[in-house]
Amino acid sequence: MTPHHSAGLRRLTAGVALAALLAMALGDLAITTTDPAAELARLAKGLLQPDLFATEYLLEALWATLAFALLGVAGGIVLGAVLVMGYHRLSVRALCALVRSVHELFWALLFMQLFGLSGLTGVLALSLPYGATFARVYAEILARAPPAIEAALPVGASALDRLLYGRLAPMWPALVNYTRYRFECALRSATVLGFIGLPTLGFYLETAFRQGQYAQGGALLWLFLLLIATLRWWLRPPLIPLALGAALWWLPATHWPDGALLWRFVSEDLWPAPLVQGHWGALGPWLGQVSAQAWSGLKGTVAVAAMALAFSWVLALLWWPMASRTLAGHGRWLGQALLLVGRSVPELLLAFILLLLMGPSMLPAALALGLHNGALVAYLTAREADRLTLRPDAPKGLDRHNYELLPRLYPGTVGLLMYRFESMVRETAMVGMLGIATLGFYVDSAFELFRFDQALALILVTALLNLVVESLTRRFAGLR
Questions:
Q1: Mean pLDDT of the chain, nearest integer
Q2: How many CB atoms are closer than 10 A to CB 11?
């Protein structure tokens, strides 16, 4: 690492710490529940003594989660494959950036106004942002194809042959691995769709935990974790076509909206009400109200995201040695199990559980995002540590961590954390649906009041924020 990069890493680390301290000083971190310790004890008892037979429609909820994830990823692959063909164009890249910057739950809230709580709402809510993400990542993977392979093709080879044999074939394993990873993400996203009423595991998890039925909620949570942990064994290529066919067969019939209703929603409801009604004098107050909500939501979103980044930073550095074979040896299974739980539980669900324990403040959201992303980065850092080749006289124990591994791993860990910060900001806006004063809180409130014009304006603000953060994190990636 060059001295310039070392200085940049130090400045970035200090900047994140300073931003987190400022956010903690200005943010709402109050614990408002009367006896959080007793509630935590009840939760722990429920997790240790789960009741699998307390949930009605358990298998149906499990299959709904799988079906939404399968169909959402399949739709995203198709859309991404189409978009990647034109991803070299600025207009296509801009469209993909805008689509993927809107969270799946916000897409679901928009489609729910047209299709209700139907299967199509969930599938579209996953397919659109996933398709835009696939287009970006697929394009980046294909761009890394060895030029020598394409150059070795016959001179008269068609453009399709060059794509298939010169770029797609050599990068196929990387494309498959990334798609498998996105399916794991889709399982979490499909679970979270239950928080708006779709019949996935998240719907029953929220109901159980909200009612204090922790044994029932614990059983559902363990079932979800088992689903994630065994993904490599049951997600087999020969079974995927059968599973997709079964998911399509299961998908409930969609009641398509009346054409007039659809046109009104697109041409009137989503546009500022003063413009539609011709009351130009009311446009100023409308802009003032939206601006006030956007500014308040932005402050809450940035504060929670800054704290979450710092928490995940600290947790990643503390946790990865526990899961590394190089440091923990045979005892790494306990650390790996801990990280599996942390990275598998959806942030919204984890924030909801912590909110029940601590009350509605920024602290549950920041902790939930920090736990999830810290576990994910720690897992990836531990894997990278086990790939490193150590010299024969490498030190042992704590010295190996401090002087041999950490200096080599820290730049990559920082790069991962900054990459995940983009996701943290997206999820921070979304946890506002739990009542925390981020942008998602005002978006959800606007939908509840049928103020779709304000909801769309605030969604666009969240998208713009995500685009700015994405641009900044790509700049920080150069510190790796």
A1: 88
A2: 11
pTM comes to 0.88
User: Domain locations in the chain?
Assistant: 10-36+286-480, 50-252
> Which among 196, 195, 186 is positioned nearest to 110, based on CA atoms?
196
Q: Read out DSSP for 371-413?
A: HHHHHHHHHHHHHHHHHSPPPTT---HHHIIIIIIHHHHHHHH
480 pLDDT above the threshold of 50 = no
Mind listing the pLDDT tens digit for each residue in 289-312? 999 999 999 999 999 999 999 999
Are the C-beta atoms of residues 305 and 401 closer than 8 Å to each other? no
Percent of the chain with pLDDT over 70: 98
Tokens coding 154: 């016959």
Looking up tokens 């900044």 gives 472
What does the DSSP 8-state code read for residue 256? P
Assigned CATH for 10-36+286-480: 1.10.3720.10
Phi/psi at 418 (nearest 5 deg)? -70, -35
Averaged pLDDT for residues 99-125: 91
Among the listed residues 208, 243, 239, 238, the one whose alpha carbon sits nearest the alpha carbon of residue 69: 243
Which CATH architecture group holds 50-252?
Orthogonal Bundle (1.10)
Say what angle helices 104-115 and 452-476 make with each other, to 10 degrees.
160
Task: Say whether 50-252 and 10-36+286-480 share the same fold.
Answer: yes
